[in-house]
Amino acid sequence: MQAWRAKENALQFLRGHLADSYNKLPSYLYILEKTYPRPVVVVDGTFLKSAYRGIMLTASTMDAAGTILPLAYVVVDSENDASWKWFFKQFKYAYGERPNMCVVSDRNKSILKATSIVYPGMPHYSCMWHIWTNIRAKFKKGHLKLSELYFVTARSYTLDEFNERMSKIEEIDPRVKAYLYDIGYHRWSRVHATVNRTWTMTSNITETLNAVTKYVRELPIVELLEYMRTLLERWTKEKLLKAKGTFTYLGFKFNKELDDNITLSHKLRVRASTDYIHTVLDGVRRYIVCLENKRCSCGQFQLDEHPCPHALAALRHRDESFEQYCSPYYTRENLLRTYEIPVNPLPDETKWYVPQHISEEVVNPPTGGKRQP
Predict the structure, then answer these.
(1) Could you give the CA distance from residue 40 to residue 230 in angstroms, rounded to a whole number?
(2) Strands of 277-282's sheet, edge to edge?
(3) What angle do CA 213, 215, 219 make, to 5 degrees?
């Protein structure tokens, strides 16, 4: 107990009184908005470790290099219906509602409820890894056999593949099939998704953000928010430099996938039916590619929005390049646009000019009380 108090006193000496940090929030947020006029929201579902606890919520996506792009973050007192609804309202105000937009989460009930209210009709998918952890806990018998089978089923590109693999799951344990059916195939299966999830089958990209914030989640509130801002400032600068140093049409992750598919395409034989429809032979298997509609019977071309080996073989047969057959989201041009707006630095606190009505606002710590040793 004495050691804990000594640590707390030392931290208070270094960082100031924790409650005082909440009083500085209005001034900090005012200066932040004036300096960097884009809304900043904090959200994901990570516990804070400061004396007053709280939750940091985050929303992220994947950029054209295949790395995390934080979209929004927010600190709330607890993870509940009201917090998530407020977050998504702010997020919608900042980010809007875009074509083919969807959400992937760990099936938190408050997230499901909030998105259905703020974004009615928008698809909400489940992280396939979280579903597997539930299966492993709920159905212990045979789970080692189920692991590989479940993940390839979730990643299936065609209904035939999916149905065949689901039959094998049922043979191992019919309770698991019933469980997955009750969740809804569209929640976790790539081929059943009403909006393409492409490679985002899990919510694991948020773990990148959780990892880098692991030791700062015990900071006072303003220092925590400032750390997040400086982190995004650094990431934006570094990723812009990498984008400028990228000389391929696609970003790193998607260019590597393209190279791998090109290698696979060289062993395929092609027979043209029309200018845009080709039969592609892979040993005894045959695939139909329609370049005009950007579709292949293997499913990858349309669901990944990226040329599969069969499409690349057809393109080579036509002596045509691949560029117009890739999603614009994967391109170097898109990557440059993503990071062209810098995260501006804040002036020193002694140089803050804050209107009196802002500086006089009172923000109290969460009412739950301080964390005890």
Answers:
(1) 13
(2) 269-272, 277-282, 285-290, 295-296
(3) 90
Comparing 28-32, 100-104, 284-288, the range with the smallest average pLDDT is: 28-32
For the chain, percent of residues with pLDDT exceeding 90: 44
Count of beta carbons in the 10 Å neighbourhood of residue 212:
14
Mean pLDDT of the chain, nearest integer:
84
What is the tens place of the pLDDT at every residue in 16-50?
Answer: 455 566 566 566 556 545 443 353 223 367 877 76
Supply the pLDDT for residue 35. Answer: 43
Which among 26, 8, 359, 21 is positioned nearest to 223, based on CA atoms?
21
Q: Which tokens hold the place of 131? A: 């579903």
The Cα angle at residue 296 between residues 291 and 297, in degrees rounded to 5: 145
Q: Which of 77, 81, 75 is nearest to 57 (CA)?
A: 75
